[in-house]
């Protein structure tokens, strides 16, 4: 099989999203020959795995890819899906990234000289270093208990949701209250659909507090620069859900209690599905209270900052619950309640089975230290909390890419004697 790929590059970057492109920017600055292998198209996930009304939850000014900060006229606006795709595609063009689209990597292993062999859908090649820039969101995760749902009810994963019109008429059950689940529930609610929402332990965040977007305050407080080593949870923070809020219509809070007052039905965490009936934990009140506690904790952190710095800001008001569950709803017969569809906003599983190297810990997570693995020459970028809260976002991925580019330089310099000896 003839290959359109080069037989060898000093560095192979696997993944052509914003993380892989950021690495490419610095490799080009350092004069390192490399290629980016992208299984689909640039910005594929933004283009295909987001709903029609999707927009960023962080302000546009945080779009800070290296060498290409946001230059539009709405720094405090929120890019919509098509604008995000255009931003990433334009970035790839501007930096002249050497991207090979439509190339799926099927195996990554070692070659006889101690470098890497990269097998792909377009043939094989070798590399002296490899950067994994494919995030950790590979396979939609839907619980096996979903198989026990009445077959007449349509089920989709949140990554396949586009709009209310794609679902059959009737009530919609959304399972999961992270960012995607809450925003999809809101999208359906605003479209006039009756929504049933299964609420987990995800925290929430105010959109605007004391005259500014909370992201602006948190940036001033250094929260996006906080290293994982300095976080109270250490590496455990990588398993925590992101705060829910939205940038829709200029940005606002997401208040599940207000939705409940407007007719949305809320339930605790899903426990099981038995004979088609969904069974829930009696933890709705606890989950709502926990989310609000985080919300008010963020307000308190900002209050303290304002007081310490003597900042002139409007007065603040902490959140007070506008609704409380009168009784726990611990089960639901979806057919009897008129539920016609379920959206599983239950996240993704990682799939590293194509990597033929010992790089996973006991829990199946990629072992690394600020993106540097124990496998000499293998690096990772684009994961949440790779090093800071900003690592998985436009605002922080460039810093990670610059750091790794220096580690890659050091690696390539260190292996030069070995490569000369092999010639």
Automatic annotation (TrEMBL):
One of its GO terms (molecular function) is monooxygenase activity. InterPro entries: Auxin_biosynth/cation_transpt (IPR050982), CHP04046_FMN-dependent (IPR024000), FAD/NAD-bd_sf (IPR036188). The keyword Oxidoreductase applies. Keywords: Oxidoreductase. Gene3D superfamilies: FAD/NAD(P)-binding domain (3.50.50.60). PANTHER family: FLAVIN-BINDING MONOOXYGENASE-LIKE PROTEIN (AFU_ORTHOLOGUE AFUA_4G09220), FLAVIN-CONTAINING MONOOXYGENASE. This is FAD-dependent oxidoreductase. It comes from Methylocella tundrae.
């Amino acid at each position: 099989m003839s290959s359109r790929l080069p037989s060898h590059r000093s560095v192979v970057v696997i993944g052509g999203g914003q993380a892989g492109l950021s690495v490419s920017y610095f490799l080009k600055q350092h004069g390192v020959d490399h290629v980016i292998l992208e299984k689909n198209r640039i910005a594929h996930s933004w283009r295909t795995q987001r709903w029609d009304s999707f927009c960023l939850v962080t302000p546009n000014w945080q779009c800070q890819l290296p060498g290409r900060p946001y230059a539009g006229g709405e720094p405090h606006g929120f890019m919509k899906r098509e604008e995000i795709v255009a931003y990433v595609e334009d970035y790839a063009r501007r930096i002249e990234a050497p991207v090979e689209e439509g190339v799926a990597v099927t195996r990554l292993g070692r070659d006889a000289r101690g470098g890497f062999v990269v097998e792909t859908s377009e043939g094989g090649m070798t590399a002296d270093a490899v950067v994994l820039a494919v995030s950790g969101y590979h396979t939609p995760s839907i619980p096996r208990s979903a198989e026990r749902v009445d077959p007449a009810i349509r089920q989709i994963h949140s990554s396949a949701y586009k709009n209310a019109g794609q679902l059959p008429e009737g009530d919609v059950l959304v399972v999961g209250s992270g960012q995607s689940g809450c925003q999809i529930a809101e999208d359906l609610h605003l479209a006039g659909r009756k929504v049933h929402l299964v609420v987990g332990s995800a925290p929430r965040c105010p959109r605007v507090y004391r005259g500014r977007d909370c992201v602006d305050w948190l940036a001033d407080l250094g929260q996006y620069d906080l290293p994982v080593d300095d976080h109270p949870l250490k590496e455990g923070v990588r398993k925590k859900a992101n705060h829910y809020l939205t940038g829709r219509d200029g940005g606002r809070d997401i208040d599940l209690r207000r939705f409940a007052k407007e007719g949305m039905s809320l339930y605790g965490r899903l426990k099981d599905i038995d004979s088609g009936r969904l069974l829930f934990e009696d933890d709705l009140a606890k989950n709502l209270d926990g989310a609000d506690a985080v919300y008010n904790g963020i307000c308190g952190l900002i209050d303290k900052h304002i007081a310490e710095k003597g900042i002139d800001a409007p007065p603040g008001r902490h959140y007070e619950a506008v609704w409380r569950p009168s009784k726990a709803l611990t089960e639901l017969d979806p057919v009897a309640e008129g539920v016609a569809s379920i959206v599983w906003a239950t996240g993704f599983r990682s799939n590293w089975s194509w990597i033929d190297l010992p790089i996973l810990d006991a829990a199946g997570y990629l072992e690394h230290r600020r993106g540097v693995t124990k496998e000499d020459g293998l690096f990772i970028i684009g994961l949440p909390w790779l090093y800071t809260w900003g690592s998985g976002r436009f605002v922080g991925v460039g810093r990670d890419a610059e750091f790794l580019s220096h580690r890659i330089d050091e690696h390539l310099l260190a292996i030069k004697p070995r490569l000369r000896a092999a010639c």
